[in-house]
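Minutes, project check-in
Item: structure for the 122-residue chain
Input as provided by the requester:
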Amino acid sequence: MAKRRQRRQVDRPKAPTSEYTDGEGNVLVLRGSMTAATRVRCARTLAGEEGTAASTIEDAWQRASELLFEHLAVRWVIAGAPIERQRELLMRFRAASPAERVWVRESLREHCAEHFPDVKVP
């Protein structure tokens, strides 16, 4: 049974990726596919429909950015050190400097404009 499951994972096609490089040579790799359900969830989150009643517009904006990053980020190489595990990617995004966050959001905007024009990026 384990061999059967392993074979399915190997045979499954991988989504295309795109690389974005900042001025310091750090590279963010983003996935080129997103499910319709994820697109809807991102839109609802950005509209403030996925948070608590006490959530602010800023909270919705930050959560929508995180959600997009979480679903699209495949790899982030910072100062030559690659981060590939989903949890570590999200933790690093949360700890990013303001300049890094701006660059990541710009990369997400560029990526979505090209691959997901229906998705609004905060």
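Outcome recorded: The beta strands are 17-21, 27-31, 73-78, 81-83.
No further action items on this chain.
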